Amino acid sequence: MPVTATGTYDDGNIFARILRGEIPSKRVYEDDFAVAFHDINPQAPIHVLVIPRGAYVSWADFSAKASDAEIAGFVRAVGTVARDLGLEEPGYRLLANAGVHAHQEVPHLHVHIFGGRQMGAMLPRA
Ligand code: AMP
After folding, report:
1. Residue 104 CA: which ligand 1 atom is closest?
2. Of 68, 82, 98, 112, which residue has the fewest beta carbons closer than 10 angstroms?
């Protein structure tokens, strides 16, 4: 079910549990600010999620409340992961869903990295 991106942070969400090591994930990267792991239901040959370690629901929540160091660290991590996955050439797509209209399912900020095939049109028809 899509979640609202403006609610308070739910410490029991699945990515909070992955961060705490309570449930497994196939991690490809981690540092002080971010963790990256394979999506459990990949939509492309390469589908990796990058999440900040901090408790933020959405991009708006993160940009309003995170420290400059957290923001810089997270943004750098996304770039590093995409590069380390070998996606600079031939390219890749970043996606961050926020709220019900975007079908955000997990209420912890995450950036999808899609790669490994032609991505097609930017958005499906509504
Ligand atoms: P979104 O719709 O942007 O909130 O995307 C949530 C993503 O999290 C989906 O692509 C799911 O397949 C993925 N996901 C859900 N549970 C897990 C999990 N335990 N490990 C890895 N990815 C997950």
Report:
1. 4
2. 68
